[in-house]
Amino acid sequence: MRTTLSIDDALLSRAKKRAADRGVTLGAFLDDALRAYLVEKPETAAVVDLPSFEAGGVLPGVDVSSNRALYDLLDEHELASP
């Protein structure tokens, strides 16, 4: 379909250069550019409000940088649980 548009001179010049660099006509380049611009964007994921806990922390004497100490603590907790 033919139509007449008013396009900013600098913008048209850039589009012509980009079309020539890609080896396509200006019309084909503008078709692709409009398709890309008009494609429906997927909805962004909803923001989830995660709970935060201010109490607690590391028990005194537990070395969180030691896997062995953490495993030992888990074993102690399992033995104490009913």
Automatic annotation (TrEMBL):
Q: Which CDD domains match?
A: RHH_CopG_NikR-like (cd21631)
Protein name, please?
Answer: CopG family transcriptional regulator
Tell me what organism the protein belongs to: Microbacterium schleiferi
Q: What is the lineage of its organism?
A: Bacteria, Bacillati, Actinomycetota, Actinomycetes, Micrococcales
